[in-house]
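Researcher: Next sequence.
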Amino acid sequence: MSSVFKKANVVVIGGGIFGCAIAYYYTRNHPGKRLVVLERNEICNAATSRAAALMTIIRSKRSYIPLSMETYRIVSALETQLGESLGMKVVGMMHLAVSEPKVRELEDLMTIAEEFKQPAHYLTGTQARSMAPWLDTGEAMKIGFMPDEAYCDPYLLGTFFARCAKHNGAEIVQGCPVTGLLYANNVLCGVKTSRGNVEADIVIDAAGAWAPVWGMKAQVGIPMAPVRSQYWITEKSDIFPEDSPIVLLPDAQAYARPEGGGLLFGVREKRSLYTSPEKIPPDISHFVFSEDKGMNDLAENADKLARFFPAFYETGIKYYVAGFSGYTPDGQLVIGKAPIAENFLIAGGCCGAGISVAGGVGLAVAELAAGVRSPYDLSAFNPERFGTIDPFSVEWLEKCAASRSKKTSG
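Model: Next structure:
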């Protein structure tokens, strides 16, 4: 390792979208400070590149909304700095409610949209079908539409953050595994790597599914667990227009969006697959997420999906994609200072919303690392909110997995 890497103000473990976003905001807001991102493989090549990338703004958890709004806001700045387009697809998001409980939830969402000054209105079934020809709206009691919601290429967004961070002076080192934490007089002072030590005033754990492993090395139980997210992409068809909106089907615990002339859709199975962070291989491509490419899980939910997608049984499946998201029992992020080591910061627990909230998470953690007050209320994301936990125990892992199984939002 060359001398430039041996000492920094901040070192970030993990080059996923959170790590890259933190690097961007820190180097933009605090020029002259030195930040190093250490990624053992390639940046944005694990959970980030496998995300469905629904950039949901309006959701029942208000704590996420300002973070997502920052992501939308910053995209144009990244594009301007690089002179390139991210190609974000602003197609809107449709919410279909076919039961009284989901109608009430939709009405609450419409109120939240108004509260955050986001456009939202109701659609008729005919209007909805004209926008998404694959969709059967016959049972819909209410259909809400948020026209400014979007999706994107998650790998591109992550690498846009990384490239702009490098332009701002960040050091982003790929193929450099962190091998341990560095201490002096029992005080955390950096990390050990395969290429030597990096001393730093602040260590940020943005290691995604592996974050609890590094937390335990710092004697911190990070309250999250790796839980599988999975989705499928159909064959191309005229019933899937490329400008069709994202569709949320809370009564089916499913979502869908266009993808290259086909339909990308995901469902939440009754028992979500999880594993201990200690058991995930360093290269996620070596982990078998499903021997049958999720077909048993799809069969379990097929009838619920076909209720809204009548052509489901006649439509071919072309691709299966799976990855780990960091889930928590309450569906909230894990952001902030570690309870017993103030110079150890945590940025994790994306709960399937990591792409959407990346901008806000990056800004918040970058400011904490600089000793500046976060621009957002992070109290809902407090790493200490569950008390003392064992992030590797079966009981804990099952609690986190159940959070995904019950999820109905995007």
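Model: The longest strand covers residues 317-327. Residues 90 and 129 are 18 Å apart (CA to CA).
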